[in-house]
Amino acid sequence: MAWGKTDNTSALIIDATELPRGQYFEINNRDSQGVVVMGGKKTTLNIQPYRKILPIAEQLFNDEINQFYNLSTRSASTWALPGQVYNVKLMATKNQTVTGRVYSKGYPLPNARIVGGNAITDSEGYFVGDFILNIHSQLGSLKVEKDGIKYQCPLQNENIKLTHGVMQIREVQCEVKS
């Protein structure tokens, strides 16, 4: 048997080990003081007992940010008891905004659907789309559909510029997918 004082605080162990290193995230639980955790690390957050465990996570931004993440948390759905510790797992998907122009056989592809990007090209083949990716994934090609024809559009690094989380593509040559 152990004797000791039961502290009048509880704690959350924040696990951000699956998030990208070098990125910072702030976590708080309802009205508690927040804590900053770096991707790839764990930290703790003190909370008052008898509060619902309902952590909220946000990405912290700086001048060097080139990726935006949709964050979610997984934790026990319970009320914190004094002296207890609860685990919170941070999870994320990457939100990649892409702008560009698609071509086929040297001509723009107007009114084509950009699959997975929630976008349609305009009359000159320009589009703006939002892709949801796994945090360690990179967009390597576009899939385009027009009039029942499916196109595969590989992305070439020399035609891509990444600025503040927006991928700008100079031009993408698409080929009919067989």
Architecture blueprint of SSEs:
Elements: E1 10-15, E2 24-29, E3 35-38, E4 42-47, E5 55-59, E6 68-75, E7 85-104, E8 107-108, E9 113-115, E10 119-120, E11 126-134, E12 141-146, E13 149-154, E14 160-163, E15 166-169, E16 172-176
Parallel strand pairs: 1-7, 7-15, 7-16
Antiparallel strand pairs: 1-4, 2-3, 2-5, 6-7, 7-8, 7-11, 9-10, 9-12, 12-13, 13-16, 14-15
Plain-language structure description:
This is Pilus assembly protein C-terminal domain-containing protein. It holds the Pfam family CooC_C. InterPro entries: Pilus_assem_C. There is one protein chain. By secondary structure, this protein is an all-beta fold. The protein folds into two domains: about 80 residues; about 80 residues, Immunoglobulin-like. About 0% of the residues lie in helices and about 55% in strands. The strands form two sheets. Strands 1, 4, 6, 7, 8, 9, 10, 11, 12, 13, 14, 15 and 16 form a 13-stranded mixed beta sheet that branches. A hairpin with a 2-residue loop joins strand 7 and strand 8. About 20% of the residues are buried. The model has no long low-confidence stretch (mean pLDDT about 90).
